[in-house]
Structure formats: C-alpha cells, structure tokens
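Morning F.,

Quick status update on the modeling queue. The single chain you submitted on Monday has been processed. Sequence for confirmation:
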Amino acid sequence: MIELKNVSFSYSEDQTENGLHNINLLIRRGEVVLLCGESGCGKTTFTRLINGLIPHYYNGSLTGEVLIDGREVHNLPLYETSRMVGSVFQNPRSQFFNVDTTSELAFGCENMGLPVGEIERRIANTVVEFKIENLVGRSIFQLSGGEKQKIACASVSTNSPDIFVLDEPSSNLDITATEDLRRLIGIWKSQGKTIIIAEHRLYYLRDLADRILYMRNGKVERELNTEQMKKMEIEELSIMGLRTPFLESLTGDDRSVVPESEDLSLTNFVFSYKRECPAININQLSVPKGGIIAVIGYNGSGKTTFARCLCGLEKSCRGTLSLCGKICKRRERLKQCYMVMQDVNHQLFTESVLDEILLSMDEADIAKAESILASLDLLPLKDLHPMSLSGGQKQRVAIASAIASQKEIIIFDEPTSGLDVRHMREVSCNLKQLQQMGKTLFIISHDLELILECCTHVLHLEEGKVIAKYPLDDSGEKKIVSFFTSLS
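Structure tokens below.
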C-alpha cells in the first residue's frame, strides 16, 4: 500500500532537521508501524513524506519515489493526499483551524463536502469512541495541552482516512488519555487502517505494533517485532536511545535527600476563570525549599494553571507564597520565579540560541552561557535562530534559559515531552544541578521516567486541589509507579 523506493531527502539550508538516506520500505495495508530512535534520527521527516508535507510544505532535495496505492505522493495535491492520510502532529495547535472544539471536529468532513447528517453522525461516534463528551462545545484556548491533543486525534478520526500518521501523539497525554489513544489505535487497527506512529513512549504500543523500525542518522538501521523488543534489556534499549516498554520495571535513581520542612508554603491560593468554579483552590500547602517537586494529575486537573498562579502570571489569583518566612505577593513572585512553558514557542524571543540564554542572565556571561548549552547538547546550534530548531531542541533552549536565569523557584511544564531517553537524562542532570544550587523546582510531568530519575517529592492535583503530597522514598516510588501503571 505504501512503498518507498530509494528515497533520500535533505532539507534546505535554513532548516536544521535531519533528512533521510536511501530508504527502501514496503508498508502493507492494515499494518501498525512504529518509528523509534533518538531525536533527530529522521522519524518526523519520514511521516512528512507519507502525508505529503514533503515536498509541498518543507523545501529540500527529494530523490526516489514515495507511493500510496501506486500513486506518487509528491505529484498529488495536498487536499487529495489528506483524503487518504490523516495526520496528528506533535504540537496540536499547529493543526487547528477553529476556535471551538465542535467546529474543529467537523472541519475536515466539511472540507470533503459531506452531508450535514453524515458529519453529525461521525462527530457523535467519535466523541463516544474517544470519551471526550466533556470537551464538546469548548473553546480551544481553554483546553490543557493534553485535551488539545485529544481533539487533534479525534478530528482526524472523524475524517476516517485509510492511513493515519501520528507524530509523538502521546507527548502531552496523561495515563488515561494515553490508554484511550491505545484503545483507539486498536479500533483503527481492527478496521484495517494503516497506522504509522513516530514515538518515544513505547509502553502503550508494545502489544499493538506489527513492526518496529529503529532509525538512526536518517536510515532504518534495524527492524524488530514486538516480541523481540519486549525481550531487550533496559541497558540495550538505553544505548539505542529508546525508552522502556515496561513502566512497571522502572526504579528510582539516586537523588539528593531533602529534609522535610515548610520553607515554601502557599496559603489561601484560589483562582477562577471568568464565571467558572475555582480552577485552583489550595487552602494550605508546604513543600521543602530545595526540592524537586513532581506535579502530577490527569489532563485538565489544574497543573498548568497552578504553575501560572505560582509564578504570578495570573493577576486575579488570590493568596500568598511564603519563602523562608518572607511573604511574596504576585509582583514579587514574578521576580522570584521562572517558568518553562509547555509550548516554548511563546518564550523564544531573540535572533540566536546564544542570545536567548544571555537574555535570561542579569549580567551577560558568554562562557557560562556556552557551558549551559553544552550541557544540553545545544552548543553546535548556538548561532541558529531558535525558531528554526526542532521541537525537542526548542524545549532544551527554554530549559537552558531557565538555568541561566538564577531564579529561586523554577517551574517546568512538561519539560521532556517529545524527548528521547538520552536527552531526558540530560535534562534530569541539569535539574539536579539546579537543586544542588539551592533552587526549588516544580516539574509538571506525565513522564514517569523523568520523575523517578530526579524528583524528590510528588504533588498530586485533581480539580485544582491537592489530593496527595509525599516524598519519593521507597513507599513514594511504589505509589507513583502504581499511579502511572494502573491502566497500562
């Protein structure tokens, strides 16, 4: 059904992403193919060849043939390819065309000119299948990152294409949403759909993938089936830059012991969006200064809103933060806190990566900035424009800026979404270094591997309230592994 014959592609000079080299591959109708490998190995480029974004949107040099049912994709107009291939991108915001969820679900069907009754039937079926009744009729702008990803997946499913191409679809999803995604991929598979997934998280696909293509330096270096992958040791997977397919096998890394204290406390912390129930409602919360606190909870539980209130970005948030006995009102929190956003495109401002780091410093120090970049595998990119980088590279630039800022409290919103195991561990090492400098870190994350690598405490939010707080000792590790594996 899908065939790549001697395909090579290199991007134009103004793009830094890696291309592909001499790919020969046949994907049969109804197969589920998992693309894996370290960031920059060519997974996303592979998906762009299938959905026609290369060469119609991304410029470069393409040789060879990419065929769907014998038709060359690069000769088809994008609107025709989109009837056959549905795509879900890593950043769902990049594929939205409407401001409300229901219109987004209908958009593709409307473009195909389907009758109103058929569109309504498809939307109704998709809403039930995806279990997104609570997201219907909502503003896109008020959704969490995970909820946006759900709508992106659902809107593609409503179009009912024969081929699905998913690029890091689980990167912002909680455990229940990831389980829903796994279930939906299973439904698509039972319907005979062909599914190509570029992904770092392997655990939810271990019983779904028919073939696993391990990519490195733009080539398919190794082909596995799921049984072969399951038998691989964690060390071998790690060397390949792959995450574990079994979350329950994870154990905590050595981490600094942080004495239990009440050096950082929140009192009467309440925030509501207009005419809605409180999104954050915390009467009293104390965490140790110098801790790395994992903030967990399901999509829409208030984690990002909590972060925005904590660092003073929400003007109408009531309550106070006390740091070592000193009361920090909102304006003071703006000075004391730094936040790495989930969508880092909102906080990259300069003309070069190096300038981005220097911007965060009170006094520019090029040698120190370059040292920070080197620690995150970014030094070779220092002269490039931040917006020309891949998603994972942008994320690491934002993290480097946070490190350079020297703020007392640093909040990271999904800092490892879309990162392979090597870059995840580099981020973990940098977080530990910040902790050793006495900084207090809040890590909003659905990444159990990162949490076990470096976090010292867990803060569990649901419906804007703290329902659990505990240290990541042996008992805490069992508790959080249970939380993340309860549905896997």
